[in-house]
What we know:
alpha+beta, two-stranded antiparallel ribbon
Amino acid sequence: xxxxxxxxxxxxxxxxRETTMPLTISEAKRLSRRxxxxxxxxxxxxxxxxxLLNDETTRACVFLLTASSDPxxxxxxxxxxxxxxxxxKYPIVLNPKDEAILDDGCPHRSQFPQPNDDDAIALLNxxxxxxxx
Length: 133
Ligand code: SF4
Ligand code: SF4
């Protein structure tokens, strides 16, 4: 049986706040088609990589449905079905040795399965696509 991930049961949206989540051009275009928003209204370019924009009031990703800027407040992704791959993989990230690890920024990381080599390969492939213009 697949273990239930803690995000919803814990009411957590920490990784959607003050986000620096990158996304590919094709992911941005798909989000644009689904939401009717122009890419410029939900992204910015950070170190040459397209990145999700935070709302000025909530300081959370513009797609997070939340009433609060409190990092521990609840929130729900309004584009869950088409969220970028980086959001799907998180809290799995790459360390400087390109190994897949659970990110310290996730307060419930101990409840996730340990990442493996397949996760590392998926993130390395994503990294390559993020750099393509
Ligand atoms: S991945 Fe971690 S930080 Fe993000 S919502 Fe789930 S528990 Fe919270
Ligand atoms: S797209 Fe959704 S899952 Fe990704 S950071 Fe924004 S609100 Fe969170």
